[in-house]
Amino acid sequence: VTGSGKGIGREIAMQLSKAGAIVVITDVSEKAGLAVCAEIKAEGREAIFIAMDISKMADVEKAKDELDARYGRIDIIVCNAGITSRTAFEDLTPAEFDKTVTVNLTGTFVTIKGLLDLLIETGHGKIVVISSASAYTGSGGGAHYAATKSGQIGLVRTLAKELGPLGIYVNSIAPRTIVTEILDHLYPPGPLRDALLGQIPLGRIGTPEDIANAVVFLASDEAGYISGQTLLIDGART
Predict the structure, then answer these.
(1) Which residues are catalytic?
(2) Sign (positive/negative) of CA torsion 227, 208, 64, 95?
(3) Which of 46, 159, 164 is nearest to 113 (CA)?
(4) What is the pTM of this model?
(5) Pairing status of strand 168-175 against strand 23-27
């Protein structure tokens, strides 16, 4: 699970662990990643941490070699790591656009490309990409963010077709309005938060658990005929 040192990624790792997976925590922050790893181990389950920058193929290939030596296989890849910033197009610089593409879109490609051989050797597998409802709404950050999230969905559709014959399922999840540090910053308790709640038919803001539960489902045998899809999780807001 990439970017699993905090937030949605952390919860995905925790729920996959509870479902029986040996979880590999990857993050650019060693401190955060090791903390999540320790939480899982404290509950009597197995997890390891590997420091990894998803935009660097050398990092991903090093991680693949370590996993091959330790386990000899991968069954599930969750591409969760990403960045965002709230910048209007008129203020958006090529540097900021490129950085967002490098982490969010190229990073997803690099992660899958670098680990794919182990998934293929396993003979089956699940890939789940955490995209965003921004791909549909154009909101949530800016043109740079929405563009990368749309790109992820296109990548998922193509990979589902190409990897399906190899027994590999590829899906994505598009969260919107989920409790995170970023959302708390943009919509602190008060009028802004109240207005946001008024836009959500289910009457509550989503939680990281809502996303993690969907990942566990898509990674399980129960999702045995689902591939190439994007699941929008937003309380019917969009």
Answers:
(1) 145
(2) positive
(3) 159
(4) 0.96
(5) unpaired
